[in-house]
Design a protein that fits this description.
The complex is a heterodimer. Chain A is α/β, with parallel strands linked by helices. Chain A has a single domain, classed as HUPs (Rossmann fold), CATH 3.40.50. Chain A has six helices and 13 strands. In chain A, the strands form two sheets. Chain A has a nine-stranded mixed β-sheet, sandwiched between helices. A two-stranded antiparallel ribbon of chain A has the order 2-3. In chain A, α3 crosses α4. Chain B is of the alpha/beta class. Chain B has eight helices and 16 strands. In chain B, α3 packs across α4 and α5 runs parallel beside α8. Chain B is globular, with a radius of gyration of 20 Å. Classes of the chains: A alpha/beta, B alpha/beta. The interface between A and B is large, with 82 and 90 residues. β13 of chain A pairs parallel with β16 of chain B, so a sheet runs across the interface. The structure holds flavin-adenine dinucleotide and adenosine monophosphate. Flavin-adenine dinucleotide sits at the interface of chains B and A. The site of adenosine monophosphate (AMP) has 22 residues of chain A, from α1, β4, α3, β6 and α4. Chain B: InterPro entries: DHS-like_NAD/FAD-binding_dom, ETF_a/b_N, ETF_a/FixB, ETF_alpha_N, ETF_asu_C, ETF_asu_C_CS, Rossmann-like_a/b/a_fold. Chain B: Belongs to the ETF alpha-subunit/FixB family. Chain B: Keywords: Electron transport, FAD, Flavoprotein, Transport. Chain B: This is FAD-binding protein.
């Protein structure tokens, strides 16, 4: 069984994001970039399925400029077998990403796509669901547990607002990862070295026959209204007094 | 111009998110219809018909929609959507699950988690865990949108919409419901509560969350948690507040033993009043707290409960 894992290069989750002065976007110059945390979890899950003998090949794909090869190498170091960069400089929205992934799914015919639930830059939470729709596959989103069954199905436990829900999907299917699915490993030095020799193919996004323009325009990107720290109170008594008489949020 | 709002419910009762999503829809202009897709969901439809501003409620009552399976609900909504200018759902795990499928099937973008409506085609949404606020304009023929309910007020229940049954059955067979473990609680829902008290890694274990319960009882509060507390297994996942958990904006948010990572702040920094209790005076949570108490939580929580 082949597993396809789409991964995104994003700003490192520890970096304090700054909005550009002209409000055209976020300042990404000289900022530390990383594998989107949810994609790291997706790679880990795919590699574990391979290690358990349930999958035969783990293919990672990233759509973007040459720089995304850095994150593809990271994924290879974590245990993926081969990587594909779909090369484009265009600013894509989730719909365009999903369409490109759909074409790749048609070529590669994976039985399972494991994808991050959300990119921590756009915070869209859309691509997996869109891909599943385009490919007419079932989806198990926000997964905290993934179990392949003997009859060619997958059971996915999903983190939902009210608790947990388990669904069963026929393969091929799309699973999107939540935080509790697993704890990703660190890439060891030998594996980082080995990753340099693993295959990484580059394809041009323009060869996929997908319109890459988004119909959504960013008119402006502003810093959020600031919130400043208030006062430090000395005691519980003072706190309760302030909440009652100053903030008036309790009685 | 008519907007279709997909109701959030669990077959018996309409969830308060829908009231807020309808308010957001009313700012997009035009008429509002609500779709109630479910199984045995007549009572929900009747409640939806009372939402102020709604002129028509469509009910699709069938086993295929009983568990809100994304594949089936999306197929239904996609078929209905072509008559509408906007298709809108709450940014809950249900809305986030099926609505992107609808967008893809309609070949339009989805605009996720809006916090303001500027006009029929222009919306405001946070990106980068709320560290940037984007104003986006959509040129798509149908706008597909999820609404962050903490950013909108609820509509009242003074309406009298007509109710219409639709018998479109979309059973894709792509997925099946197996089971559900729902957290039962007497407390208000996190996203609807006026007061929220959350515990973090500093709580040390699940039993210690009982220290928050007594306070929550007195304040009528919901209890939340940081990711670290959920990952450590202190409390269930549905209590996580943050960028990738629930977004809350209560009148009062009390963060206990939580350091204040940006991902946590993303879920609560629009609360009216924030209180932080942390023994580390340097913890970043104090930078957003209106009232900070630098103290050991195990000492001050019992005191706080006693003084309320
Ligand atoms: C992709 C991604 C998504 C994430 N999404 C979320 C999210 O949605 N929500 C979320 O919360 N986090 C999220 N996180 C995690 C986030 O980065 C932090 O790791 C997490 O919020 C830390 O939780 P904490 O504050 O409870 O733990 P810590 O950072 O360990 O802080 C514990 C605090 O407790 C205090 N403390 C300890 N003992 C006591 C005591 N006895 N009395 C008083 N104070 C005490 C300490 O001083 C410390 O400040 C996400 C991370 C990633 C990478
Ligand atoms: N440019 C991209 N290349 C590869 N995968 C992507 C890309 N953008 C998004 N994804 C995948 O889709 C997931 C969800 O992204 P989003 O829907 O944008 O929040 C990410 O975690 C990735 O797994």
């Amino acid at each position: 069984m082949k597993i396809l894992v789409p991964v995104k290069r994003v700003i490192d989750y520890n970096v304090k994001v700054r909005v550009k002065a002209d409000q055209s976007g976020v300042d990404l110059a000289n900022v530390k970039m990383a594998l989107n945390p949810f994609c790291e979890i997706a790679v880990e899950e795919a590699v574990r399925l391979k290690e358990a003998g349930k999958a035969t090949e783990v293919v990672v794909v990233s759509i973007g400029p040459k720089a995304v090869q850095e994150q593809l190498r990271t994924a290879l170091a974590l245990g993926a077998d081969r990587a594909i960069q779909i090369d484009t400089e265009a600013q894509l929205d989730s719909l365009q990403v999903a369409k490109l992934l759909h074409k790749l799914v048609e070529q590669e015919q994976p039985q399972l796509v494991i994808i991050g639930k959300q990119a921590i830059d756009s915070d869209n939470n859309q691509t997996g669901q869109m891909l599943a729709a385009l490919a007419n596959m079932g989806q198990g989103t926000f997964a905290s547990k993934v179990e392949l069954t003997d009859d060619n199905k997958v059971q996915v436990t999903r983190e939902i607002d009210g608790g947990l829900q388990t669904v069963e999907l026929s393969l091929p299917a799309v699973v999107s990862t939540d935080l509790r699915l697993n704890e990703p490993r660190y890439a060891s030095l030998p594996n980082i070295m080995k990753a340099k020799r693993k295959p990484l193919d580059v394809m041009a996004a323009t060869d996929f026959g997908v319109a890459l323009e988004s119909k959504v325009t960013y008119l402006n990107v502003a810093a959020p209204a600031g919130r400043t720290g208030g006062v430090v109170v000395e005691s519980v008594e003072e706190l309760v007094d302030k909440l009652k008489n100053e903030a008036k949020v309790i009685q | 111009m008519t907007t279709l709002v997909i109701a959030e419910h669990a077959n018996q009762q309409l969830k308060p998110e829908t009231h807020k999503t309808v308010l957001a829809a009313s700012q997009m202009g035009g008429d509002i219809h609500v779709l109630v897709a479910g199984e045995g969901c007549k009572a929900v439809a009747e409640q939806a018909a009372k939402l102020t501003g709604v002129s028509k409620v469509l009910v699709a009552d069938h086993a295929a929609y009983g568990h809100q399976l994304a594949e089936n609900v999306a197929a239904l909504v996609t078929e209905l959507a072509t008559d509408y200018s906007h298709v809108v759902a709450s940014a809950t795990t249900t809305g986030k699950n099926f609505l992107p499928r609808v967008a893809a099937l309609l070949d339009v973008a989805q605009i996720s988690d809006i916090i303001a409506v500027q006009s029929a085609d222009t919306f405001v949404r946070p990106i980068y865990a709320g560290n940037a606020i984007a104003t986006v304009q959509s040129a798509d023929t149908i706008k597909v949108i999820t609404v962050r309910s903490s950013a909108f007020d609820a509509v009242t229940e003074e309406g009298q919409a007509s109710i219409e049954s639709i018998d479109i059955v979309k059973d894709t067979g792509l997925s099946a419901f197996v089971h559900e473990e729902l957290t039962v609680s007497e407390r208000p829902e996190l996203t609807a509560a006026k007061v929220v008290i959350s515990g973090g890694r500093g709580m040390q274990n699940g039993e210690n969350f009982s220290l928050l319960e007594g306070i929550a009882d007195k304040l009528g509060a919901a209890i939340g948690a940081s990711r670290a507390a959920v990952d450590a297994g202190f409390v269930p996942n549905d209590m996580q507040v943050g960028q990738t958990g629930k977004i809350v904006a209560p009148d009062l948010y009390i963060a206990v033993g939580i350091s204040g990572a940006i991902q946590h702040l993303a879920g609560m920094k629009d609360s009216k009043i924030i209180v932080a209790i942390n023994k580390d005076a340097e913890a970043p949570i104090f930078q957003v707290a209106d009232y900070g108490l630098v103290a050991d939580l195990f000492t001050v929580l019992p005191e706080l409960e006693a003084q309320l």
